[in-house]
UniProtKB/TrEMBL annotation:
<dbReference type="InterPro" id="IPR008390">
    <property type="entry name" value="AWPM-19"/>
</dbReference>
<keyword id="KW-1133">Transmembrane helix</keyword>
<feature type="transmembrane region" description="Helical">
    <location>
        <begin position="49"/>
        <end position="70"/>
    </location>
</feature>
<feature type="transmembrane region" description="Helical">
    <location>
        <begin position="12"/>
        <end position="29"/>
    </location>
</feature>
<feature type="region of interest" description="Disordered">
    <location>
        <begin position="132"/>
        <end position="151"/>
    </location>
</feature>
<keyword id="KW-0812">Transmembrane</keyword>
<dbReference type="Pfam" id="PF05512">
    <property type="entry name" value="AWPM-19"/>
</dbReference>
<protein>
    <submittedName>
        <fullName>Membrane protein PM19L</fullName>
    </submittedName>
</protein>
<keyword id="KW-0472">Membrane</keyword>
Amino acid sequence: MATVGRNIAAPLLFLNLLMYFIVLGFASWCLNRFINGTTNHPSFGGNGATMFFLIFAMLASVLGIVSKFLGSNHLRAWRNDSLAAAGASSVIAWAAGLQADKHRRAQRVETEAGLYSSRYGPGYRDTDHYGGAAADPMHKGTPAPVTGTRV
């Protein structure tokens, strides 16, 4: 029965390793674009939590890759000491993944607060600048004629 678990775990470890490499590559690419300031495309949003999210996503993916290597070493050796190393590294990678998810949720909350706020939402219009809600922003007009000056 133990060989069935080992036979199933090997392809799953490899698939998870590939997914960690994809996350690492995508997070590195996004962080590079974010640092260079080339994020002015509408599909690439960013706020205060974006930098932290990308850093923690890269950290979690590197720790996950190390955890998968230690897991494959445990599959090869199949001893208690290799199980302890693989288990400890997987718990650390899982904790880093939770930290990255916390920053992703903070980023989503900041974005939704900006979208659904009546002050800075999609229908935002600074009514104080235009003279009230009923004023036309294109034709402001003058409040009173200017007298006594000729230039």
